Amino acid sequence: MQSLIGTGVALVTPFKKDFSVDVEALKRIVNYQIDNGIDYMVVLGTTGEPATMNKEEKELVIKTVKETNNGRLPLVLGVGGNNTAEVVEELKTRDFTGFTAVLSVSPYYNKPTQEGIYQHFKAIVEASPLPVILYNVPGRTGSNMLPSTVIRLANDFKNVVAIKEAAGDIVQAMKLIQGKPKDFLVISGDDMVTLPMVLAGGAGVISVIAEGFPKQFSKMVRLGLERKVDEAYELHYQIADSIDMIFEQGNPAGVKEIFKVLGLSENTVRLPLVNVNEDLAGRIEQFVKKTVL
């Protein structure tokens, strides 16, 4: 899918100080992405804190992003979980108007076998009216979706169009790129290894840091896709320290601190997440002022 090549961002959900969804801030963040070269946006991915949101709040976020975007960029919707039947039910009943694809995370906590992961996604793909992007993030889920399982799904179902690969393992990513069907996309889900993955044959990224620095990060990915290696790595090394910083005390607390400095939103996160501490907030502020402002 051509629309998923390049830089996608996993949108945060901005909250006011009273923890309610900040609609105006969300509009600003969406426009900030569009104005600075992002290629597509992911709504209610795990960075959007959907685990702490009720149904009405999720609908509000979807409605706000769709109206603000107004068809300018492709949108992907996060629909995943560790209760297969519940995910299938949502896929069968949700209105997907305005969305290009679904991003679905490998089941967390249950720690299924590779066959269990395959059967989970088989059920999801058969229920989904949209193309499906698999999401492998072992650090969060407790299990690693192996390249053999991904390639099996990609070969068995034309509707499985991509994987967001966030194992942080460049060798695993290269095995995926080597063994995948021709049109299947391997998308980085790990900001620090995005450029090496792109240069190895990956299709781009679904990023967190690109949300804070959309102009620089999307340019780096474009240069990588164009095989302008030295220029791309120059940008990578300019941004690299900030990637470590935003994940140092949890996501999305770090990137929300960037938005606070940029004046786009509050830095509020919902429990069990907490704000970054004063030391890290100071370092992030310093970096943003040096890089963007």
Molecular structure report:
By secondary structure, the protein is of the alpha/beta class. Helices cover 48% and strands 13% of the residues. It contains 13 helices and eight strands. Strands 1-2-3-4-5-6-7-8 form an eight-stranded parallel β-barrel, surrounded by six helices. Helix 2 (55-69) links the parallel strand 2 (40-43) and strand 3. The mean pLDDT is 97.
Q: Secondary-structure map with pairings?
A:
Blueprint: E1 6-10, H1 23-35, E2 40-43, H2 55-69, E3 75-78, H3 84-93, E4 101-105, H4 114-127, E5 132-136, H5 138-141, H6 147-156, E6 160-165, H7 170-179, E7 185-188, H8 194-199, E8 204-207, H9 209-212, H10 214-225, H11 229-248, H12 253-262, H13 278-291
Parallel strand pairs: 1-2, 1-8, 2-3, 3-4, 4-5, 5-6, 6-7, 7-8
Helix pairs in contact: 1-2, 3-4, 4-6, 6-7, 10-11, 11-12, 11-13, 12-13
Quick description:
With 293 residues, the protein is α/β, with parallel strands linked by helices.
Distance between the termini: 35 Å
The proportion of residues in beta strands is 5-15%
Which parts are unreliable, with pLDDT below 50 for 5 consecutive residues or more?
Answer: none
Task: Provide the helix percentage.
Answer: 40-55%
The counted number of beta strands is 8
Order of helices and strands: EHEHEHEHEHHEHEHEHHHHH
Keywords:
293 residues, alpha/beta, 13 helices
